[in-house]
Each structure stands twice: as structure tokens, then as C-alpha cells.
Design brief:
Layout lengths: L1 H6 L1 H7 L3 E4 L2 E4 L1 H19 L8 H4 L5 H12 L6 H16 L3 H8 L2 H4 L4 H14 L3 H14 L5 H10 L4 H9 L4 H13 L4 H10 L7 H10 L6 H13 L3 H8 L6 H13 L5 H15 L4 H13 L2 H14 L4 H14 L3 H14 L4 H16 L3 H14 L6 H14 L3 H14 L4 H9 L31 H8 L3 H12 L7 H13 L3 H10 L6 H11 L2 H7 L5 H11 L3 H12 L19 H10 L10 H18 L4 H10 L1 H10 L5 H7 L3 H21 L1 H11 L7
Antiparallel strand pairs: 1-2
Helix pairs in contact: 2-3, 5-6, 6-7, 6-9, 7-9, 9-10, 10-11, 11-12, 13-14, 14-15, 16-17, 17-18, 18-19, 19-20, 20-21, 21-22, 22-23, 22-24, 24-25, 25-26, 26-27, 26-28, 27-28, 28-42, 29-30, 30-31, 31-32, 35-38, 36-42, 37-38, 38-39, 39-40, 39-42, 42-43
Length: 732
């Protein structure tokens, strides 16, 4: 019977039959089994070739609770077709089960998954060991972790397996310290070992090196300096000094840098640190420090900064000499030096020489940022005196000569406004079009869009607009980190992703732009919105051509702007915007400016929470709306009270959002006074005349935020801007 079946197995193979039943027993036909294995291997190979960035239902479920996503994941995981989607679904289901301490069901989801989901094989083994641990099969758990360590000895996940193994056999912790000192799990081991025996300087050095950028490591650094100074190498001192500097312990950093290698940065920081935290003898030491940098590294970039700082510390004639040295040796810094030199010459009465310095600035360094600032100051002064033609003439060159200056969008916008006043309507429109196309992220792009007649809301209409808001439903691929990390991040496995990325980055003295941005994404998913937003903004401060290139590329992506203008507490903001009939993007914009979306934050004057509500104001509003129990640190309560007050300020000023937002910052008394003094119909001129620089900046920031939220999260405006700028459509 079996022989005849073998002869006819091609029929069964064609039907996909794996065997037949004889007397209740399943007999597998050998060739059919071989065919099935080949077919399965083909499916695996096809699945492995899948593009991980293609549309994915599983990735849309990454941030949804396990209860809400269970049914959909189950359907995907039970698919007969082997695919990346099915593997992702099985993995997430297994993780959800492990979090509920259901080891047995989790093991069934993980069974065989390592064969079809290679990017996460080490984590599959790690989690499988955890499954066995939950079912009290400790031998199987340890065996699985040992397989992980043996098979992937150089993969950082092995450090977590060694940590787990060390809970049963301490020898594995020694392996972790030797092989993976940078891993957060290993650092836990090191801290535990140090508590047991504090006389281990090598462990202290590892902590100082691999857990450097936090003030909690300062006691470790202090201990090394106090008790083991003679054993430290120059490289150890470098690590200690950098850690102190990062945590703003400048005096301690200075002493450590003196024993580190003599690099331009170190010599600069020795002088600068003493200048930031001076003592009675610091002034001479500071000057000596900067001068030593001039002697040892005369062409280093830090030397240009040292020369300018020496000029500020010196008498007039000596200072002029330092500025001349900057102009001669460092062309990229010459613009700033010429401006400062001209100011100094004016102060000592050498007006002709000052004028010559400014002429040199304009003629020889037209593209310097300092030149843009000087031109703008002349244009502003002319406009205030009513000389619109001079203002327009002086500001125009900024547009072409200084396109990357922070002043460029403002200058171009006012070139348009002044052109309107001069009756040059075509020039005005060209200027507004330029701002929108070349500086689409700026406050002045919004003001220009208004002038061009776009439906983006003006100060008098923003409040009533209720734009459609579209948020991305899948996390983007981070620009840095391993493929394993990227997959974990996109799956919403934040704890594992954060741990792995920290381990991957802990051996770097400085993060690149892409690495720092990826670190920002992790801060945002942890709710560290203030740190995340500030870190994205600070990327522009990284020096070097590679950093500039990475930042330029990053700014062309939607992900950069989503990170710089995140939308946490989305549903809370949307709900209260509907109840108060206030544009949700205006609320989000005000929150971003007030608190950077930090619900626990308190200002120096006592304002609390997302919308920075003063306790007295909160109490007054709560009485108005009969809210008996509330907390200003509770996001829903805070937005409830804050949006009521924002609505109140709008009603006070006939729904003029400019005045309402100004009142939110400076108070109704000041706004009323400004309206009486500056009775102007042009809101742009009104903003410029506000005497409080804080309020002026606040208005530009809030409405600049509004414009960015609109262009990022509203499909209509995103498409319009993409067409105008020839850039990638942000609302993809």
C-alpha cells in the first residue's frame, strides 16, 4: 500500500497533501514531506526578501494596548501565508503574553519564529528563555540563553542573556563586564559589584566612561579623582573631564582637562570653564589659557573663538589687535570680528576707522551672517524713521547673499511689506513667494501665505478654523542604529529599543546628527518632550561638513518635522478644542511654547502644567465652570482650564488671536495699554512695536508653531507647500 502511494505521490503533491490516514495513524509520504519542506523554505526566503518599509497593519498597532490589538494580531498571526507581517504579529502577541506572565502561550507564539524572522532572532531567543522561566522550566531557560550567547557572542543582546544567566551563576556576570561594559544591563552589574566592594577603580572607570552623560555619575567621577588620581591615565582624565563638562561641573572639568591630552578643545575648555565659574584668580588664568591655545594650536577653530573672548577681556588697543588677528587668520569668523571691531572703534571715538570696518564688511564679506545682521539693523532704523525706500534697499541683499541666516525669512517678508508701501506690487508678491518657497518652516512663511491670499487663517480668523488633522499611524525608520533596533522601535518595543540603542551608542564620545536625532525619537516616545524638542533644535549647533550634510538631509524628511513639532496629548487637545470651538492647532502651538508638552512642569513664577496655568487663574476658572476637583498637573484638567481661559481672552478681544495670545503671555492690562499707544491697523507693525521682547518672541513662536502644525498635519496645506517648494510632501 505504502509503495503504491509513493508511486502516486505526485498527485498528492499537486494537491498539497502531506500524508494519509491509515487505521487512525498519520503516515507522512517522504517525497511529500520533502516537497513541503522545500515549499516552506521557499516561503521563508520570499518573506525574508520583503521590504520592511512597505505598508504594515501590524506597525499601525504598535502603540495600541494589548487588549485592543489582540484580535487583529491573532488574525494576522494565524495566516497560512508566511510573511514579515505574520512574524511581526506573532512576536507582538508573544510579548503581550509575557507581560501578563503567561509563559506557556508565549512560547507557542515564539516556536519556530527564529527561522522566519531573522532580524530579531537574538530577541526571540531572549524572550523564549523568559517564557521558560515563567513556566518554571529553568534548565530550558538557561539552555536557551546559553545558545544565544554562543550563537551570537558579539551581538549586544547577549549581554542581557548573560545578565539573566548571572542571576543563577555569577560567573556569567564576569563575562558581561569583560565583553559588554557599555550595556545598561552590565552597568547594573557593575554598580551592584561596586556596592559590595567599593575598592574597585576599574569598575569606576567603566561607569565613568559608559554612563557619562548624567549627573548621577558625578559621585563616581569624584571618587576616582579623590582616591585613585595616581592610577588614572590621560585617557581616563579625558573621560572624567568630558563627563564633568557635560553636567556643567566646570571647575571640576577644568582640573581634569589639565591632566587629559592637550587638544585644542581641551585647552579651550580649561580657559572657558574658569571664565564660566570664576574664582578670585580666574581672570589672569583665563587669559593665559586662551593665549596658550593661540600658541599651541594657532589654526584650530577653537582658536578663533579664543581670540574673540580675549578681545572682550582686553583693553581697547589690545582688543583691536585680537580682532585683526581673527580677520586675518579665520575668514569664516571675519564678519563678526569686523562688527565688534567697528563697535569698539566707535566707543573710543575713531569713527572714520569704524566706518571703514563696516565698509569692509559689506564689500569683502557680503555673505557673512554678521553682514546680514548689520544690514537688517540699518533697514530697521530706516523703517522706524519712515524711510521705507532705504529700508527696502538695505534689506534686499540679505535675501540673495544670506539665505541661511536666521534673519533671511524676516528680511524677505519685510522687503515684501515695504514694496507694498512703495507701490511695487509685483516685487512684493515675489518676496512673499520667496519666503514661502525658501523658508517654509518660518513664522514669516505664514505671514507671507496670508499676504498671498492662502486659506491658512489670519489673526482675526484662526480661532474659528477647524482644520483636518492627520497624524502618521506608523513610526518611521530611524536614521541610525542597527536593523534590530529599528525593528524593535517600529514595533513599539520601547524598553528593549531604548536599552539596545543606548548600548550601541555608549562607546561613542559624541553622537552624529543622525544618532542624536534617533536618540530624540526615543526621548519623545518616553514622554520626555522638552528634552526631545530641544535636542532636535540643537542639532544645528553640531559642527563639521558631515554634520551639516546629515542635518540638511534630515530636514528634508517628514520625520524631522514630526519630531520638532510633536503632537502628544492629541485626543485631549482635539476634544477640548471642539468643546471650546478653538482651532486645535492653535492650542497645540500654545502648549508647545508654554511647556513643551511636559504635564509636570512648573515655571519660576508658579505656572503649572501643559498650558502653564497660574494656580490663582486655575482657581478662578474652576469656580466659573463649577469644577470642584482638579489638578493642574493632570493633562485633561489643565487643558480644560487653559482652553477656557484662552477662549475668554479671545472673547475679550473680539476673537483676535494676536491680542488673545499676547494677553495670555503679558496680561490684559499690558495689551490694552499697547492698543491705546500703538493704534495701528497693520498687525505686523503692531507686533514689531510691542515693547516686551519676551511677548514679541512669544507671539512669533506661538504662531510660528501654528503654521508648522498646519503645514505638517494638514494634508491640504502640506500638498500646497510641497508644490511650491518642490519638497517631499510632509503629509504622506
Amino acid at each position: 500500500m505504502l509503495k503504491s502511494l509513493k508511486q502516486k505521490n505526485f498527485l498528492f503533491a499537486g494537491l498539497g497533501i502531506l500524508g494519509i490516514t491509515i487505521v487512525g495513524t498519520i503516515l507522512l509520504v517522504p517525497k511529500t514531506v520533502e516537497w513541503f519542506e522545500q515549499r516552506q523554505q521557499t516561503q521563508i526566503e520570499e518573506a525574508l526578501k520583503e521590504d520592511p518599509n512597505k505598508p504594515s497593519i501590524v506597525l499601525t498597532l504598535a502603540e495600541i494596548s494589548s487588549e485592543q490589538r489582540q484580535q487583529k494580531l491573532q488574525e494576522i498571526a494565524e495566516s497560512d501565508t508566511l510573511s514579515l507581517e505574520r512574524s511581526r504579529g506573532r512576536y507582538l502577541l508573544a510579548i503581550d503574553l509575557l507581560r501578563k506572565y503567561e509563559g506557556g502561550p508565549a512560547l507557542r507564539k515564539l516556536e519556530g519564529l527564529d527561522k522566519e524572522y531573522p532580524v530579531l532572532i537574538p530577541y526571540i531567543l531572549l524572550k523564549r528563555g523568559r517564557g521558560y522561566e515563567l513556566t518554571n522550566e529553568i534548565d530550558k531557560a538557561q539552555k536557551t540563553w546559553k545558545i544565544l550567547v554562543k550563537t551570537y557572542p558579539d551581538v549586544l543582546v547577549a549581554a542581557e542573556a548573560l545578565y539573566k544567566l548571572g542571576e543563577y551563576d555569577p560567573q556569567y556576570w564576569e563575562q558581561a563586564i569583560e565583553k559588554f561594559p557599555q550595556h545598561p544591563s552590565t552597568q547594573k552589574i557593575i554598580r551592584k559589584r561596586f556596592q559590595e566592594n567599593p575598592e574597585q577603580p576599574q569598575l569606576l572607570i567603566l561607569l565613568a566612561k559608559y554612563d557619562a552623560n548624567t549627573s548621577k555619575t558625578n559621585p563616581i567621577r569624584d571618587r576616582l579623582v579623590q582616591d585613585y588620581s595616581s592610577q588614572l591615565t590621560p585617557e581616563n582624565w579625558q573621560v572624567i573631564a568630558d563627563g564633568y563638562w557635560t553636567t556643567n561641573e566646570y571647575n571640576k572639568a577644568v582640573q581634569a582637562y589639565k591632566k587629559a591630552p592637550a587638544t585644542p578643545q581641551n585647552l579651550y575648555r580649561i580657559a572657558r570653564g574658569q571664565q564660566i565659574q570664576p574664582n578670585s584668580d580666574s581672570k589672569n588664568e583665563v587669559k593665559t589659557g586662551y593665549q596658550s591655545l593661540l600658541l599651541e594650536f594657532p589654526t584650530a577653530p577653537e582658536t578663533a573663538t579664543a581670540l574673540k573672548r580675549l578681545a572682550k577681556l582686553s583693553q581697547s588697543e589690545t582688543a583691536i589687535g585680537y580682532f585683526d588677528q581673527v580677520i586675518k587668520q579665520f575668514p569664516n569668523e571675519a564678519g563678526d570680528a569686523l562688527v565688534e571691531k567697528a563697535k569698539l572703534l566707535d566707543e573710543i571715538g575713531r569713527k572714520a576707522e569704524a566706518a571703514k570696518s563696516r565698509e569692509t564688511l559689506l564689500v569683502q564679506y557680503p555673505k557673512a551672517d554678521a553682514t546680514a545682521k548689520y544690514r537688517w539693523s540699518v533697514a530697521q532704523t530706516a523703517a522706524e524713521r519712515g524711510d521705507v525706500l532705504k529700508a527696502w534697499t538695505w534689506a534686499q541683499p540679505i535675501i540673495s547673499n544670506n539665505p541661511n541666516s536666521s534673519l533671511a525669512p524676516k528680511a524677505a517678508f519685510w522687503v515684501g511689506k515695504w514694496a507694498q508701501q512703495l507701490g511695487r506690487s509685483q516685487d512684493a508678491r515675489a518676496a512673499f513667494e520667496h519666503v514661502v518657497s525658501h523658508h517654509p518652516q518660518s513664522y514669516y512663511a505664514w505671514r507671507s501665505a496670508v499676504q498671498l491670499g492662502w486659506n491658512v487663517g489670519n489673526f482675526n480668523t484662526i480661532r474659528q478654523i477647524l482644520p483636518t488633522v492627520t497624524k502618521p499611524d506608523i513610526r518611521s525608520v530611524p536614521p541610525a542604529g542597527s536593523d534590530m533596533f529599528k525593528e524593535l522601535y517600529r514595533l513599539g518595543q520601547d524598553e528593549d529599543a531604548i536599552t539596545l540603542f543606548k548600548a550601541e551608542m555608549n562607546d561613542r564620545s559624541q553622537l552624529s546628527v543622525d544618532e542624536s536625532f534617533t536618540d530624540t525619537l526615543l526621548k519623545l516616545v518616553q514622554g520626555k518632550n522638552l528634552q526631545g524638542i530641544n535636542q532636535v533644535w540643537s542639532l544645528q549647533n553640531k559642527d563639521g561638513p558631515e554634520s551639516k550634510k546629515q542635518l540638511q538631509n534630515l530636514r528634508e524628511t517628514p520625520e524631522y518635522w514630526y519630531a520638532l513639532f510633536p503632537f502628544p496629548f492629541y485626543q485631549t487637545i482635539i476634544d477640548w478644542s471642539h468643546k471650546r470651538k478653538i482651532n486645535p492647532l492653535l492650542i497645540a502651538s500654545l502648549i508647545r511654547q508654554e511647556s513643551r508638552f511636559e504635564p509636570e512642569i512648573t515655571s519660576p513664577v508658579g505656572a503649572k502644567g501643559l498650558m502653564q496655568v497660574m494656580p490663582t487663574t486655575g482657581e478662578w476658572v474652576a469656580n466659573k465652570i463649577a469644577l470642584k476637583k482638579y489638578s493642574l498637573n493632570n493633562p485633561n484638567d489643565n487643558v480644560n482650564l487653559g482652553t477656557w481661559y484662552l477662549n475668554y481672552t479671545h472673547e475679550t478681544y473680539s476673537n483676535n488671536s494676536l491680542l488673545a495670545v499676547a494677553s495670555y503671555n503679558a496680561g490684559p492690562g499690558n495689551v490694552s495699554k499697547w492698543r491705546r499707544i500703538y493704534q495701528v491697523s497693520d498687525p505686523d507693525i503692531f507686533v514689531e512695536k510691542i515693547p516686551f521682547q519676551e511677548t514679541k518672541s512669544y507671539i512669533e513662536s506661538v504662531f510660528g508653531n501654528y503654521w508648522n502644525y498646519l503645514r505638517i498635519y494638514n494634508t491640504e496645506i502640506a500638498k500646497l507647500l510641497a508644490h511650491k517648494t518642490q519638497r517631499k510632501f510632509l503629509g504622506k
